[in-house]
Amino acid sequence: MKKVLVLLSILVLGSALFANGESEKAFPTKDIKFISAGNAGGGADALSRKITSIVTENNGWNFYIVNKGGSSDANGPSELMKARADGYTIGQLLYGSCVSAVWQQVLPGYDLADLRIFGMVSAEADSFVASKSSGITSFEDLIAKAKAAPNTIKVADQGAGSRTYMVVRQVQDYYGVEFNNVSYPGSGNMREAILNNELDVGVNSLGDFSSIIDSGDAIGLVEFSAKQNAKYINVPTSGALGMPDSMQSGSFFALAAPKDTPEEIISEISAAFATAVQSDEFVSYTKQLGVTPMYLNEADTNAYIKGIQDRTFPILDALKADGLI
């Protein structure tokens, strides 16, 4: 009888140890869903796919990308807010996700407090890019043509109150011109419109338009930055063209997870992406696109976003008070 009891005890102990080992398997034990806030084929999508592929190479983790663009970049984060907080759903925040969508309250229940924003991947300045078919050869040429024929040059933005909308309005006000403003959900749509000769000037980062610039279907006119683009050295900065610093503008790519995701999982994911962002492969890739890799930790990322909100919300309030949005 004693032998039987001893054997049973060993079996029970072994089962407990096995169960405990199963529950403590290293994260992750399955594929991770990554929600991109950009449409398929756009710059945000491309960056999402590249950075996750590097994490896969480094760590052996598998990701699948789900594109949820639209609603001022709020659709993706909105889905992320509702996901299980287990580390198996993370995602991307863009400027629109953190500024336009918050200020406009574009979706019911949309609240960044429901997310854990834990890192930064990249930043990129906005630009004006003209289609080859438009015949526009430089920023100065754009302004001259706009003055000669008001409200005829089709210039894109991403909707009233968006970052690109404000850039276009600033240019119009500063130079005293009027464009024929048209709205598109994202840079991928603008790229397609340029290729189809439906749009004269797209407004987003040079990186977002890199494929059609490199192919010769479009040219960069200006980048709204104080620093010369490392790839597109022939595209002047807004500062070089005499515009004030207040006209500098751009987006960013931040990382987030549902707010109650366990701390140890956030730490592991954050460390993996930090390594990937600072890798030679990602630095080289972003340079080819004209994008700036920029790793920031959780505290610095949240401070960066808050700073942009604090600067932008009063401008949006003023535009609304004037009936412009």
Write the layout of secondary structure elements.
Elements: H1 2-23, E1 32-36, H2 43-59, E2 63-67, H3 75-81, E3 89-93, H4 95-98, H5 100-104, E4 115-131, H6 139-148, E5 154-157, H7 163-175, E6 180-183, H8 187-195, E7 201-205, H9 210-214, E8 218-223, E9 250-258, H10 263-277, H11 280-289, E10 292-296, H12 298-321
Parallel strand pairs: 1-2, 1-3, 5-6
Antiparallel strand pairs: 3-9, 4-7, 4-8, 4-9, 4-10
Helix pairs in contact: 2-10, 2-11
Main attributes of the structure:
325 residues; alpha/beta; D-Maltodextrin-Binding Protein, domain 2; 2 domains; 8-stranded mixed sheet; two-stranded parallel ribbon; 12 helices; 20% strand; globular
Q: What this model shows, in words?
A:
The structure is a single chain. This protein is α/β, with parallel strands linked by helices and 325 residues long. The chain has two domains: 32-123 and 250-321, 3-Layer(aba) Sandwich (D-Maltodextrin-Binding Protein, domain 2); 125-247, Periplasmic binding protein-like II (D-Maltodextrin-Binding Protein, domain 2). It is built from twelve helices and ten strands. Strands 1, 2, 3, 4, 7, 8, 9 and 10 form an eight-stranded mixed β-sheet that branches. A two-stranded parallel sheet has the order 5-6. Helix 2 links the parallel strand 1 and strand 2 (63-67). Helix 2 crosses helix 10 and helix 2 (43-59) packs antiparallel against helix 11 (280-289). The protein is globular, with a radius of gyration of 23 Å. The termini are far apart. Mean pLDDT is 91; it is low at 4-23.
